[in-house]
What we know:
With 290 residues, this protein is an alpha/beta fold.
Amino acid sequence: MEQIESKDQLDQLAKEFRYIVTDIMCRAGGGHIGGSLSLVEIIITLYFRILNIKPDEPRWEDRDRFILSKGHAGPTLYTALAYRGYFPKEVLLTLNANGTKLPSHVDQVITPGVDQTAGSLGQGLSCATGIALASKLHKRTNNVFCVVGDGESQEGQIWEAAMFAAHHKLDNLVVITDYNKMQIDAEVEKIVSLEPVVDKWRSFGWEVFEIDGHDWDDIYDTINKAMAVKDKPAMIVAHTVKAKGNVCYENRIECHFISIPDEDERQRVIGGVCVEGEEEPFEFNWTEGK
């Protein structure tokens, strides 16, 4: 599949992703909508403009690796994998169902295209550093990408991995912090502040960038700069909006996990999927979208 460069195409993908992620969570009775929608542009950029992968050969050894450390944002990753051809789009409708290949938190054993099981927060970056070191030892030229949450960045294991990666000069490792500034109970600043987060990562020996996590050019250009860094790992602090694109929950604490008890609530939340500057809610036709 060729890279997608057109902003119109990227914008259309983002619309579809936000509708699908909201829809499949509503059908499942709930889900982690906030941290899934905040990652839409970042995941699309990685899977449609950056990653060197082969969907018809999911375990190709020389592929770039992507580790979603904040594994509860799986629905956005699943949508990208479906669009890239790892499995049919209609499989997305089985999110969290009995026997599904798409559990609430990502699982490398059962989901084609998932490179690392995650969900126990704080562990994904350690896995990513190990994978990056292994690639170095085997003299592979692939890159390892990892997305961590701001809430999970309060975990000590994140900073142990940060020291390890800098010590081993893992310049094949690019990490993105989804800095939407909210976690399950309150704003990150009120629980345990990360600030000054940029200075902290620099002090650990990383090259650090800051971006608008919803700006296509900013995301793409900065990831490429991060991939060009030599002799140290790179951190991209992405400023994002939790539940971006759903007016029912955007930038609200209660969006971390939502419950959908009935059809009325489902219709309300689906109707909240909108696009800035457009009056009508966005709708996705599953039949036409296959």
